[in-house]
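I am still learning, so can you show me any protein sequence you like together with the matching structure tokens, please?
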Amino acid sequence: MKRILITSLIALAATVVNAQSVTVKAGLNYSNITRTGDDNFKTDFKTGFHAGVGVDIPLVDRLSLAPEIMYSQKGYEVETSGVFGTGERTITYNFVEIPILAKITAAPGFNIHLGPQVSFLTSTTTTFKSGDNQYRENVEEDNDNLRKNLIGGVVGVGFDISPKVNLHGRYALDLKRNDGSGNSTTPEFRNQVFQVGLGFRL
């Protein structure tokens, strides 16, 4: 994973040389998971944040390549019973993500962006609100077995508030399940996140 991340960072740094603009971005995440499995595992959205930098490389009229490197928090809140144990917790997944986006200028000051992204899980934080020791141990063991890199897709829009400031909103969904076929306290799932934030062109 480290080799893939380092290679991706080098490639992104190389694109800056040809970039028309560099933008620093930050904003809020509103995340949850999509899942299959037991109906007793019902999750709620949680808030987090994202921050990073992106570049804009013109290709043809109204179309540019817009790769980014971002830190992004995802996760969910859940209260479980039955097969997945009994307890309540909030899970936060900390990712380094590299979206490779096509940016389409649909109208002056308005653009659509979409494309794939690679996500690298750097750490997982669990806040327990209830649950016995066995439940907590099972959850921590499940977290240790999560996939450390994922492929996903991104779609969103952007609005230029001024020549130097823009507003972006997007939706991202992992295409790979985070934990295969599920385990003792967590069913198989994919991360999803809604994001809104501001970008500042340098």
Notes: The longest strand covers residues 110-131. The radius of gyration is 18 Å. The beta strands are 21-35, 42-44, 46-60, 63-80, 87-107, 110-131, 149-160, 165-174, 189-201. The longest helix spans residues 2-16.
